[in-house]
Amino acid sequence: MRAVVHRLGTRFWVLGGAVAALLLVVGANAHLLYVAFEARPDCVDHIRMPDETRPGEFRAAKSAC
Asked: Which pTM value belongs to this model?
């Protein structure tokens, strides 16, 4: 009888740990989605036209301003 109770207790803790890990992953992903949609930076200045004096700088394809 004691072995059956011990086995059920072990199963309970293993399943509880798996559920807790799954909830942690789902919560982290939900937080990342929330931050991605809520964090909208203000309009940032960008190069309007290509400039040969400043190589390596890119301009926006379409300005949001």
From this structure: 0.55
Is 24 a member of any domain? yes
In a domain, 52, yes or no: no
Residue 48 covered by a domain: no
d(CA 64, CA 19): 43
Q: Mind listing the pLDDT tens digit for each residue in 22-54?
A: 999 999 999 999 998 887 666 656 656 666 666
Minimal CA–CA distance to 57: which of 47, 42, 44, 43? Answer: 47
Locate tokens 């942690």: which residue?
24
CB 21 within 8 A of CB 29: no
Residue 45 resides in a domain: no
Which structural domain, as residue segments, surrounds residue 2? 1-39
